[in-house]
Amino acid sequence: MTRPRSEPTPDEIKEKRRLDDALEEGLEETFPGSDPVNVTQPPPSRGDGHVKRTD
User: Fold this and answer.
1) According to the model, what pLDDT value does residue 46 have?
2) CA 18 – CA 12 distance, rounded (Å)
């Protein structure tokens, strides 16, 4: 059984809006395109061990 879902916090709403805006911008900049936009950063691979990431 699942619990009833509570209302999202203001921080969750703000983060969702930020992600939605990033997705919309990516879609606009790549249209028309054959591949969907990926708004998440993939995890580093083994070959990336020498690269420092700044998120």
Assistant:
1) 75
2) 10
